Structures
1.
Amino acid sequence: MKRMIFTIKKICKLNCFLIFILLIGSIIFVPENTYANTDSEKYYNMHLENKFKKGAYFSQVFDKPIDQVTDFKDLDFIIYAFAEPTDTGYINPLKKENQAKDLITKAHANGVACFISFGGKYSYYDFCEIGKDENKTNFFTENVVDLCKKYGFDGVDIDWESPIPSDTEACNRLFKSLSTACKENKLYFTAALPGTYSPTEAVAELAGGFSDQALSRLDWVHLMTYSMEKLNSPLEFSENSINYWNKVRKIPKNKIILGVPFMAMPSYKNYDWIVAQDIKYALLNKAPGTKDYPLESNYDGYNRIYEKTKIALRDAGGIFSWTINMDSQTKYNLTKRIGDTVRDAQKIGLNRFTKQISIFLDNNLLNYNINTGYPYYDANNRTLVPIRATAEAAGLKVTWNQETFTATAEKNGTLIKIPLNKNQITINGETKTIDTNAVSYNGRIYIPIRAAFEGLGYKNITWNRISNTIYVDNDMTGESK
């Protein structure tokens, strides 16, 4: 009996020791497929869908260290591109796993949500095959969720881009499965949609497979309003695409995120490369080819990014870039330009900011405020600007004659006189009739911008209806517009 009791005690001690070893081992040796700690629920509960969002795609193609790409200060979300699916629903391993982990860690450290995009340029067939088969759809959905949990991604983005009408059923099945799984796991669910040339209809083969049912399952959509052949991303492309997806397809404005390119067409050169050739190109939207790269570059420069952010603030729910790796780290950083523009809008109020007339003089934005007065359109639909603030920005010497009620401006030997309430302007002694007049408004003198600057020798005064922006310069090529 004593021997039996002793044996039992030894077995108990041995079992306790084995349990202790197993516990220690479970702490020290983490299985490779163990899920990473994730704050996805934290970011999901931030309800990003309800705010104006600033985002960017981050391409795994580039090797530049993340710290040299972004400091995350002007982002609400960033999307790692791409994870590549196969036609079976299996997802290939990430090509740069450590890069993805680093991006997630640094994004979260700065309070920025990090998504993973599935697909890309060559995944159209794979999504079609997955969506056609329920078993493949379920297998792919499980793999998507597992990948997000493993690395700590906060959302799922589908870059199918262009399902055609015959793909509608497959798209419906896939989006339903993913939407359900994302909600259950506190993950955002988004997709990239093609831009459209027309405000009333889309090219069927580019968008016909996205049914209203499928689109309703998304938290928001990313409009790819770029790569429009040679022109790349004109303002009209942005306007028409927003109007189509909002007014025709009924996607709410707050769910539409406007895309801006950080690359050029047809040269396919990155914005940072273009600016490195000559810093002046940062303020333009077109650059000539070089000896080694003869194709011209059409792109969104520093000022057009301001215009597009203004459009997005008025007509959409956010703005994103493709891709942030292509941004310039000079003072003409486009990501910061977006952030600064949003902050400016918040200071004076969104409604006032999006309705105000923006004026660029020699590609520099003129700053008006409640103290200086704001530009406005008169009864003749002509733009009047407060003379003092405008003159100071233009380097003009301005005087006011209280007896004759006449404003005088002088620059580089040119003297112009603009009398109050008279449809005329005098340039170096020669009087001309103009189609509107200077006025006194709210205690300030306002002058017609076109007459004044043309009188000073500016050759190019262009108004852009879409962004409510005026450019004043001597660039006869129109490249700055």
2.
Amino acid sequence: MMRRAWLQGLLLLVAVVASGAEKAPGKGAVASAHPLATQAGEEILRQGGNAFDAAVAVSAALMVVEPSGSGFLGGGMYLLHRAKDGRNVVIDAREVAPLKASRDMFLDAAGNPVRGASTNTALAAGIPGEPAGLALMQSRYGRLKLSQTLQPAIRLARDGFDMYPRLNAGIAFKRGQITKSAEGTAVWFRDGQVLPVGARVVQPQLAGTLETIAKEGFSAVYTGSLAPRLVDAVQKMGGIWTLEDLKAYKAIEREPLVGHYRGATIIGAPPPTSGGVALIEALNILSGYDLAQVDAVTRKHLIVEAMRRMQRDRAVYLGDPAFVSMPVKMLTDPDYAAGLRTSMRLDRATPSATLASAPEAHTGGANTTHFPSSTRMAIASPAPSRSMPVSVPASWSTARECCSTTRWMIFPSNRVCPTSTA
């Protein structure tokens, strides 16, 4: 699934760069995984907010309507562009391990992995980064008050929204975990069954939590009234969070990566996410071919071959910069890509055995949300879907600012086109 998303994302990017951008159709744009979250961003733009205010509103709304991919206590990366001074910056709000985490915490006494311990237990819960990331973006780049940007999400949690097929399937898949909680069961189940498609999903407790944050700020999660409640709940379920963990968490501003592809400038997020490095490396490999002049099968073949080499390097080299040293400069160097390109053939796939060894690949799922928002662009509101690439091709030459949770942004000459991948 992750590989399919990468393939579709690269095909879309190549098509955008090859075809050129359309004329900007309006004043602002928001695109997200759910139309209600998109509407939340639109609402904030109409109230005078900028793209960063809209991003906070969309993030909060997605916490309500897309909890499977945008949970309130998750993390993420925000890629920002501020046109007035040309500043590009990445807000790193990824989760971190609790201070009590240890190397063998998911192993049994014999040293064997405990099935599900690293994925379906409170022990696996990282210290959340999204609230800190949103706080940093709101305070440093936003225009409106938090109490205003959170109102759409509070309303959605209090008044509810209609259950949709993807969320219904996700809740059913996680039934065993959710039903361990009386609160979770009360929200998502009725008479022992998952709420059917079309049923109203109402979350009064989440509405109350968001109202607390609107009053206290996102610090409520880390040092305020919500912190002891969160720690107590996680510890009761077997987790190892402490108040010290929450107090110590800080979102980080990082310099984005920059690459180039056929006149387009690629602005990408750096590690700990792998997306920026991976995209730039793959496009550097593909820059040696004129993909617009080859047939569709050959184009897909070349993209897949480039992705295989990129994914191999991703698995071998990339990680958390707090713990590992990574050859990012090498991986994003066009000369390095040229060397990788020499082993690619047009008539056949490269035998995997001839590629350098790498850790066993792991297939990801549709569990990460992505959205872009901008001022002075038209509104784009995609229908609910799993986390697949989204794109809004248009001229952003007059944009005041834009924010994206996607892994990269594209500036072909005077154009910006946000795209994303899982």
